[in-house]
């Protein structure tokens, strides 16, 4: 739990929270803008590899599956392994790698690896953690912050199509893929801005520890042990006092102490093993509860929200992707197709 002092140090609805908003805008702008404009690349892939549309849509289907799995990992299981900042930075690296690999492939089937697996991981690692981090930094102003952050969807959908069209006309398909891969590296910059909440909690603990240093030093002076700085010196002092009081020879007393230490160390080792086993079992149970926790389904609004999101998303992406190739079949100019996307 975060202390009261740590809570006061966290810039909720102020300060660095606005930097988190900018980072979230960048993530949404790049990821959604690039995804919604993929239809332009879709038509170019069909022309470059002389492949049917079905062979390319397989990669997009794999991308959706990988996105769902990677989002589940980053937002549930992986929270104990890394922070949201780490996942967003990894997402930027995966996104750049996906487009660089797509730029050098010689067969359309490799799109399953590049745009299917790699970009699916990038999508899942970047989009969800960025929204979660935004919600942690905004409480009272969360509504306006979420609205401003989601403006990246509209801005990305407006900016990316003409930029991709310009790159395709200037550098061709492979050159445009390389440039877009470099642009997606800015996800790492956005991830670097996402300072975890634990940073402020650690600062609160450090300041509290500094304040308590004077209290502990006063107590040592009170008990007359301030001059004992080394644990071995303190231990030998206690041994000498006990042997002089009980009349036991020093060597015999040290042997008894060593024997007791061995017994205590062996028992402590066994206790540590039992503690580790029990904690590992408890950790697995808690992880399963977090991943397979269906208590949220008790909320009626959430149950209504699931089919609404399903029906809204199931066809939106497909329309954007298939418009450019269909428009090209209708002999519409490439510059006019950009306006359709």
UniProtKB/TrEMBL annotation:
SUPFAM superfamilies, per database record: MFS general substrate transporter
Keyword vocabulary terms for this entry: Membrane, Transmembrane, Transmembrane helix
GO molecular function, one term: monocarboxylic acid transmembrane transporter activity
Transmembrane spans: 16-43, 55-75, 87-105, 111-132, 144-164, 176-198, 304-323
InterPro entries to which the protein is assigned, alphabetical: MFS (IPR011701), MFS_trans_sf (IPR036259), Proton-linked_MCT (IPR050327)
Keyword Cytoplasm: no
Stated name of the protein: Monocarboxylate transporter 12-like isoform X3
Native source organism of the sequence: Crassostrea virginica
Gene: LOC111134804
